Amino acid sequence: MRITLVRGDITTQDVDAVVNAANSSLMGGGGVDGAIHRRGGPAILAECRELRASHYGKGLPTGQAVATTAGDLPARWVIHTVGPVHSLTEDRTHLLVSCYRESLRVADELGAISVAFPAVSAGIYGWPMDDAARTAIDTVRATRTQVTDLRFVLFTPEAHAAFEEALDTTGS
Ligand code: AR6
């Protein structure tokens, strides 16, 4: 698997699947979630509604992932995962790890070969960027998957620098 870092907006990525940092409601929000629903159009929300009705009446649990089509995005699928809100009193790293593992499991189920991830939980959910980057890189490196082109699409120079550091210093 090749891991690359890209500066920019995940909604422009021409990949099989883009991962959305969603919330349990699957009904959209700010950050990456807002951008994906804005650019992807109403088809994504319509499928999210169906998933809520058929499988996730109480919402998609934190750490899990589920796929919809990608509407008007260049990608084929959106994999929605719910990151943990960062906590100073409780270590929720296992839930962030689970987001990456579960997203890759869903990607494999779909037959996706190229997947773009944002820095899950590192925005509105308040996860410190350095730790979010290390957890992301360590986890994808340790996960067995058929994905061969895995990209982290980082919105800010700080996020890009943190992922670059993590890519250079962890896992080896
Ligand atoms: N492309 C790539 N990265 C982005 C983009 C984009 N278009 N927009 C923001 N980022 P966040 P979270 C970066 O807040 O912390 C939503 O309301 C951003 O700078 O999107 O998991 C959901 O509905 C940050 O580094 O996700 C949830 O309620 C990273 O993506 C909640 O926010 C993640 O930030 C989820 O919060």
From TrEMBL:
PROSITE patterns: MACRO. It comes from Streptosporangium vulgare. Keywords: Hydrolase. Its EC number is 3.1.1.106. GO terms for molecular function: O-acetyl-ADP-ribose deacetylase activity. Signal peptide: none annotated. It is an enzyme of class 3 (hydrolase). This is O-acetyl-ADP-ribose deacetylase. InterPro entries: Macro_dom, Macro_dom-like. Residues 1-171 form the Macro domain. Gene3D superfamilies: Leucine Aminopeptidase, subunit E, domain 1. The keyword Protease does not apply. The lineage of its organism: Bacteria, Bacillati, Actinomycetota, Actinomycetes, Streptosporangiales.
